[in-house]
Amino acid sequence: MFYWFMKTFVLGPVLKLLFRPWVKGLDNVPAEGAAILASNHLSFSDSIFMPVMVPRPVVFLAKSEYFTGTGIKGRLTAAFFRLTNQLPMDRSGGVASAQSLDAGMDVLKNGSLLGIYPEGTRSPDARLYRGKVGVARLALQARVPVIPVAMIGTDKVQPIGKRVPNIRRIGMIFGEPLDFSRYYGMEDDRLIQRSVTDEIMYELMRLSGQEYVDEYAAVVKLRMAGKAQDVVPDQAPAAGHAAASESVQESSPDDVEPTVAGEDGPEVPGGS
Fold first, then answer.
1. Burial 147-179 (b: 16+ CB within 10 A, else e)
2. pTM score, whole prediction
3. Is the model more confident about 61 or about 130?
4. Which of 81-85, 136-140, 260-264 has the highest mean pLDDT?
5. Where are the domains of the chain?
6. In angstroms, what CA-CA distances link 152 with 21, 66, 155, 246?
7. Distance CA 177, CA 35 (A)
8. Which of 89, 256, 262, 266 could lock onto 163 through a cystine, CB 3.0 to 4.6 A?
């Protein structure tokens, strides 16, 4: 109810008026039945703009820290994310992250739309990075189509670290559904998982026009944090620690985490 109210009467009309989003291929999103919306990730606001334009509700996986805060602020943050159709995702890697994908599987089994950012974190420089194979495992296990979604210009609206968005037009392109039925029954094969993920990333590259980098975005962020450490030594230890933590979480050998909505995002009402 809260999701529908905010989308229809609050956020939806305001965002459409201010940012005048243009959309192509929206008819590629099925009117009913389960599907994965796999998107590039340029901005915290991607998780707001996309659901506003999709007629059906979209459920996203969000980092679990948003649901475990203490005090009034923490409880408000958790309530906000739950009411806006977001589910907790454990990013610690390995078994914990794999188990968190069960929540996404439940969404798909219920015939709903699941939003995923295969890069696992926002792009640090507007390029498209190597995808994590969690999206492939979900698509193959649930036996659902994947709709590639290219977000356009959202990094200009809300760059990393900026809390107040710039008012400018944004766009999104919904590609044709990707059918991976030829791989059903092989969802545990790592080579198949990588092949499916790479096919999804290729479509995102084609639709978005982004330069593709065959490297995890989290690793690049770690490297960028290391350079910052050389420039600002008195501030770098904290930044380096955070980046190292992210690298361990998002570049684990199991490589199953497909995304977390709101990754490193600015404050939301009551947010952290």
1. bbbbbbbbbebbebeeeebeeeebbbbbbeebe
2. 0.81
3. 130
4. 136-140
5. 2-215
6. 9, 26, 8, 25
7. 9
8. 266
Confidence label for 53 from pLDDT (cuts 50, 70 and 90): very high
| Fold observed for domain 2-215 | Glycerol-3-phosphate (1)-acyltransferase (3.40.1130)
For the record, the structure tokens of 199 come out as 């096919």
Q: Which position has the token pair 């009411």?
A: 83
